[in-house]
Amino acid sequence: MIIFSGTANRPLTEKICEYLNEPLGDVDITKFPDGEVFVKVNVSIRGKDVFVVQPICTPPNEALMELLIMIDAMKRASASRITAVIPYYGYARQDRKDQPRVPITSKLVANLLVASGADRILTMDLHAHQIMGFFDIPVDHLYASPVILEYLKSKNPESPVIVSPDTGAVKAANAYSQTLGWNLAIVAKQRLGPDEVNAITVVGDVKGKTAFMIDDMTSTAGTLSSAADILLERGAKEVYAAVTHLLLNEKGVERLQNSSIKELVVTDTVPINMDIEGLPITRLSVSSLMGEAILRIHENRSVSSLIK
What we know:
Mean pLDDT: 93
CATH topology of the largest domain: Rossmann fold
Number of strands: 14
Structural class: alpha/beta
CATH architecture of the largest domain: 3-Layer(aba) Sandwich
Low-confidence stretches: none
């Protein structure tokens, strides 16, 4: 087994290698003067079980192209098996044709990964579960819930309630609710535009309760901030948020600064190199979870217990 890292999230790969007690594979990733990516593997990987860790995060086009070129380099270096470890699968929001003349980009990305030479995919908290069906190679889909659940339990809140900030996160929120034995509430929203969301109503009792919103990702924080506002209007005592992938832009930072969210819990599937004034950010690592999955894949053991 040998593990390589792209440039998108090297700190996570280093933590994974530390968990596995394995050295990080030596690879040079540079650019030509015009910006083209060049990859050179500096160690022999002939017959090796290779894992390439790279989230498709900001900037997604560059991260994706780098991942494809790395996989192609590994394939041409005669690796026996190449697993693309993608902590965050970019373009996952474009998973269906919901209006005329638009692409299904998450399917296109799946095709590109297979064409580049990937034999297997390991990813976490897909925005849409049907993306697994876009691949004709095995896909192991992990959840960050074990890491987040452990943190939520440690807070030991009074009168807690798990909240789905929109209908798309209901299944995940319900799983958290069942595991923790906490009540469940759902916020219904209306999307006014790509980065504009209006929360309409709350299904469930949140009055006098500590609300914990659960979602897979946030970029503009429109869903989270509007949901937090309506939860407080309906009598919630405090509002917290936990998301797996933090992909904030400037508007998202501004919204969170002005929101009524008391704490934001995130994982390190994508690099987290920001602080938001007035909003504590708790950073949790998924390195041990992904490291264990890599080890089990390498040893041809079941990863279903990790998925559950």
